User: Fold this.
Amino acid sequence: MKVRIILLSSMMILGACQLKTKLVYPAAEKDNTVDNYFGTEVPDPYRWLENDTSQATAAWVEAENKVTNEYLAKIPFREQLKQRLTDLVNYERIGIPQKKKGKYYFSKNNGLQNQSVLYVKNSLDGEATVLLDPNTLSDDGTVALSGVSFSNDGKYMAYIVSRSGSDWREIYVIDLATRKLLDGPVLWSKFSGASWKGDGFYYSAYDAPVAGKEFSNVNENHKIYYHKLGDPQSKDVLAFQNQEEPKRFYTTEVSEDERVLFIFESGAGSGYNLFLKDLTKANAPVIALTNDMEYSYYPIEVIGNKIYFITNYQSPKYRIMTADIASPKLSEWKELVPENESVLSNAQIIGGRLILTYDKDASNHAYVFGLDGKQLHEITLPALGSVGFSGDKDDKETFYSFTSFTYPSTIFKYDMDKNVSELYLAPKVAFNPEDYVTEQVFYPSKDGTKIPMFLTCKKGLKKDGNNPVFLYGYGGFNVSLNPGFSTGRLPFLENGGIYAQANLRGGGEYGEDWHQAGTKLNKQNVFDDFIAAAEYLIQEKYTNKGKLSVVGGSNGGLLVGAVVNQRPDLFKVAIPEVGVMDMLRYHIFTIGWNWASDYGTSADNEEMFRYLHAYSPIHNIKNDGTPYPAILVTTADHDDRVVPAHSFKYIATLQASDTGDAAKLVRIETKAGHGGGKPLAKQIEETADIYAFIMYNMGMKMR
Assistant:
């Protein structure tokens, strides 16, 4: 097929003000592709854009980026905004310490390093030395450290890297005494860590993909291998595979005492199945502990002969259960800490006690329990926010990191015996948190369900109906949006904006029932919740339709695309980031099939097809002159999770439709993926472009 790309030289053809200018976009040729779903014919004229390695697609990408870059370059405060973002993020950021065999490991970024550096200390007050600097692994910061795993004897560290944002991983091993590279790379690993057993580790990988299709072809036959240090990968022992289910994921975890290998099977439900193998016995069988993938079952720790689990089996808000290694099947599990009115979102055993984190109205609360299941005390946190703990099951020394919307990530040392927190490290950010305030509101959705939403703004802001708003949502896959700090939002807040974060159904904020209320044939609830958030903000005089932007990424990109089609009158600006935009074909790319538990697929049955077709962003763009908001789509060339074809086809359809004169642009990042591991320089540039686009199209100025 020959594809013609036309890029007209003039971008400005109506008047002197750019906001009133009708842009001229690259014209992507349409083909005659039509699919038949249960007797309904659905055109797919931009199918050729699914081929992300073709010359035609490359030419189209270049033309689209040219239009977008020229538009963004004309925003008068774009560079000023980029400089302010650079100044704000230029502060020392230190990760929570992880103690292993008497040494402390932590990440640190001096301010503007593309990737954070891994350091080690021999004592808390000792001198820190560099253990691994990912910035030395590439010239442009596009090689990221995506995980580390320490051998249980403290001799080795496996480190895992990703390149250009891809989900593909490479595993290497260094000797911690000499800090020399011992092993690697182990290639074609994906969605896997390194689970140590002796002088080797278990990992999950796929067969090498077809050349040229590494980032688009469906991933099948996930296998678990054991790699012994010093051996070539070709000698790795196949430890587990399931040939009957080629599209499922299989990942591992080894207990710290190396007695038990846990295997997780996912990809065919909202949860996963759990298997166990006794590593102390030669040729021990793999035992299935569960047989229902609609639930989650996660081993917290093995202590003696007892296994501690966190699960939502027959408990939508999760509980703690235990089992004996000798009789580990689910039918033999015993309840230790029952389900309560809040969602149990995390559980760890540190210093011989359970530290349980609960979500109450989307904010974390932490408690200490004995191993007998009895609550000892609540840990007092600085404010409503999010917390994460670090510590060993046998070590009384514990750290936690706390953050909120106006509280940069801060590390505390915690004494469990005294129930006392002591400040360990606080960052120095160039803003005053006392100038800002966060409130939580609860608004009614279309069906009357109360939805929580956080609002952050400068103190003293007036509810006069004229404040710019950045409304963010996700609503899917049991993901909870808890409070968190970002310097990227600060320039918007400094200039009178409000950051709004809605906790929609489909997420995990209120447990599995809340999640299921936003899946499959209930997915419209998520869109209704988001639309209701916008209506509430207008009704309560926070803002108006001309000052309201809507933003979401991945599943949140789908959310933005859907609500803009359903209520284009409600928003001034929309930013769908790396979104799932073709709901009829999402499942045929890379790991898209894994999302069927939330979405269903067009192949399931006619009812599911019609439901998906009714909200799929690509298939519901109006073409009748209805004015749409200004839209900036973002994607990346190495996104092998939500392939860029989604965004390519969406923007091509949008630009070819009659949706008014507001800008409809796409920003296509190079050497980047779904978002993880992106170099700081690229993060700053992308954030500056997104906020510049939003602020410019809402008539804001930089002060």
Remarks:
- The CA atoms of residues 188 and 205 lie 6 Å apart.
- Confidence is low (pLDDT under 50) at residues 1-20.
